Every structure is written in C-alpha cells, then in structure tokens.
Amino acid sequence: MVNSEAKVRLDLNNPVFQENLLTLQKPERHAALDTLNKIRQLTWNQVYRDSGLKWEKVTSVEPPAGIDTIYSLRITQARRATAYRDGDFIRFLTVALDHDATYGRK
Prior knowledge:
Number of strands: 5
Shape: globular
Distance between the termini: 37 Å
Order of helices and strands: EHHHEEEEH
Number of domains: 1
Number of helices: 4
Radius of gyration: 13 Å
Helix content: 25-40%
Strand content: 15-25%
CATH superfamily: RelE-like
CATH architecture: 2-Layer Sandwich
C-alpha cells in the first residue's frame, strides 16, 4: 500500500548517483544536499505538488528492469536528478549533466 502522507525516505545508494553527486562543483553539491534535506522532510503529496522540485514523469527513456516509471526532479537550479518511487523511498538514479540529458536527448 502506497501512503502519500508518509514522509519521504531517501535512498542515495546507487553508485551512478553517488558519482554524479560527489563530483559536482562545491556550490552545486551543497545546493543538491540542501534539496535532499528538504525532500526528506516532505510527504509524498508535498513532493508531487512542490513547484521548486518539478516532479515529472520521464516518458522518453525506457526504465530499467523492475522499475515501472522514472521521474525527474530539480536537484539544483541547473540540474535535474532521475529517481523512482519504491514504497516510501525515493531511489535516486542519476544527476544529469544538463537538463536535456535527463530526458534522453543530447
């Protein structure tokens, strides 16, 4: 059962996401960490409605096996992350180098 009033739990364990996050320049890395801190304080309904995060379904990229849908969200002013919902967890996949890369375009 999916509870949209549950607090979001973060899963930052994906190695690609970790590499993307940890190699950001310091100001962007700090902005991304601020966003992650914000997300963990929200419910799922708040994540879906937050105009700053801009949670959007990605339809132009085939999700990996076992994942129904990939979403993108703004993690810094200039970058978007990809993630999916798994129960109460938001499981992060990547931080895109640029906005179009999030959607599989170059």
